[in-house]
């Protein structure tokens, strides 16, 4: 029941004629994905796991209670008095951690929690980018189907016109067959486009992590141009990226582990103190136990941790270099797609529509042949299709740039 309420809230349902019509904008899709995607839920659970380990790492070692009896025997061959002839011990021992081991463990566990949080941030960005990409794919697929539906309607009127003219004997039947063939080809393309639109919608809900809603209305306007994206300072953008932050956090984890391994090289003394009864007398027992670091000084673990620190530093430098290259490439692609959409496509679409209108008028006046009319309609379809695909590619380029700049979600 709660899932249904969440879905209703995110979709921002509007009442129309007493019924609820589901509408989904691009930001709604992202919010829904961030709430319902199970990969993000798993990443959040890993954060809770890391926090539990952080609590465990900060605990002090437990004291140990010893209850011990020595020299007890079965009194078969000689008399035996338990209270006078046995040694009884009851004492406590406690390990005293040196070199700040508990603090070092807690530091490493805290860095592991931050690493799990950085990993969640990275997954949120990746899922938001994927959902937005799928969203505009679905919007574009519906737009392509609408373009073909419009062309199908125009060709349908042309078919009817030819049927009438053939009956009147004003046009040859071959022209009618040629128009009907063109109509059937566009009808096939339209059916394929509708199937692709349905598939794109299913893929969108797959990326969201929710059950498909075939009747949902995608409110994103493919033709509406957003304000240009300002990349800003590249170093700031690189530091903001979740993947770079994750790698940097890996470096912090490696350094915390190195500090812990160095602390582990210092022996921890274990002190004991308690009660001893021997030969009927009550006495005390005390002692200290220390591991002698002659052979094992944790040198292997220290060397491995130091190597991890060096490797993490190299990985961070490589990640920053790759991030800068990716940002520069994304900026170039975005600007190229933006210039194409802003400058070339509007003129192309207008010219194609005008050519189709003129060709239709000229053909109906008998001043042109059928092939020119059909060619004009094909050009119009190609121009509209190119415009839609270019707009989709612009949306993709914008999403890629936002991901590269660390602006999502």
Q: Rounded to an integer, what's the Rg over CA atoms?
A: 38 Å
Principal-axis shape equals elongated
Order of helices and strands: HEEEHHEHEHHEHHEEHH
Number of helices: 10
Question: Average pLDDT value?
Answer: 87
Overall domain count: 1
What is the distance, rounded to the nearest whole angstrom, between the alpha carbons of the first and last residues?
Answer: 27 Å
Write out the strand line-up for the largest beta sheet, numbering strands in chain order: 4-5-7-8
Report on this model:
This protein has ten helices and eight strands. By secondary structure, it is α+β, with helices and mostly antiparallel strands. Strands 4-5-7-8 form a four-stranded antiparallel β-sheet. Strand 7 and strand 8 form a beta hairpin. The model is unreliable at about 1-20 (pLDDT under 50).
Question: Secondary structure elements and their pairing?
Answer:
Layout: H1 2-11, E1 14-16, E2 19-21, E3 23-24, H2 26-36, H3 38-57, E4 64-70, H4 82-85, E5 87-95, H5 101-167, H6 173-208, E6 217-218, H7 234-240, H8 242-264, E7 270-278, E8 281-289, H9 299-364, H10 370-404
Parallel strand pairs: 3-6
Antiparallel strand pairs: 1-2, 4-5, 5-7, 7-8
Brief synopsis:
By secondary structure, this protein is of the alpha+beta class.
What descriptive keywords fit this protein?
409 residues; alpha+beta; four-stranded antiparallel β-sheet; two-stranded antiparallel ribbon; disordered N terminus
């Amino acid at each position: 029941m709660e899932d249904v309420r969440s879905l209703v809230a995110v979709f921002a349902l509007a009442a129309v004629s007493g019924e609820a019509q589901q509408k989904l904008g691009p930001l709604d899709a992202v919010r829904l994905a961030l709430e319902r995607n199970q990969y993000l839920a798993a990443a959040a659970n890993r954060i809770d796991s890391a926090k539990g380990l952080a609590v465990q790492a900060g605990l002090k070692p437990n004291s140990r209670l010893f209850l011990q009896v020595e020299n007890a025997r079965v009194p078969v061959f000689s008399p035996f008095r338990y209270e006078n002839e046995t040694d009884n011990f009851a004492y406590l021992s406690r390990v005293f951690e040196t070199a700040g081991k508990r603090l070092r463990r807690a530091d490493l566990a805290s860095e592991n929690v931050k690493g799990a949080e950085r990993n969640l941030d990275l997954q949120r960005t990746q899922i938001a980018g994927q959902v937005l990409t799928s969203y505009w794919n679905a919007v574009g697929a519906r737009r392509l189907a609408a373009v073909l539906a419009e062309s199908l309607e125009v060709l349908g009127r042309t078919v009817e016109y030819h049927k009438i003219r053939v009956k009147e004997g004003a046009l040859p039947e071959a022209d009618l067959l040629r128009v009907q063939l063109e109509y059937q080809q566009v009808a096939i393309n339209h059916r394929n486009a509708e199937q692709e639109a349905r598939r794109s919608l299913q893929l969108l809900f797959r990326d969201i992590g929710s059950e498909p809603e075939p009747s949902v209305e995608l409110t994103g306007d493919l033709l509406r141009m957003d304000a240009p994206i300002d990349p800003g300072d590249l170093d700031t953008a690189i530091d903001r990226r979740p993947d770079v932050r994750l790698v940097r956090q890996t470096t912090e984890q490696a350094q915390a582990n190195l500090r812990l391994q160095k602390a582990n090289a210092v022996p921890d003394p274990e002190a004991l103190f308690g009660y001893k009864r021997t030969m009927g007398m009550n006495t005390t027992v005390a002692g200290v136990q220390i591991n002698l670091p002659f052979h094992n000084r944790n040198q292997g673990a220290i060397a491995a941790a130091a190597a991890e620190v060096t490797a993490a530093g190299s990985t961070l430098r490589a990640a920053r270099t790759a991030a800068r290259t990716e940002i520069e490439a994304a900026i170039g692609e975005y600007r190229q797609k933006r210039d194409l959409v802003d400058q070339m496509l509007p003129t192309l679409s207008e010219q194609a529509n005008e050519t189709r209108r003129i060709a239709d008028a000229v053909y109906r006046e008998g001043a042109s042949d059928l092939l020119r009319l059909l060619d004009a309609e094909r050009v119009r379809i190609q121009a509209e299709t190119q415009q839609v695909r270019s707009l989709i590619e612009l949306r993709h380029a914008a999403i890629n740039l936002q991901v590269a700049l660390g602006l999502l979600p």
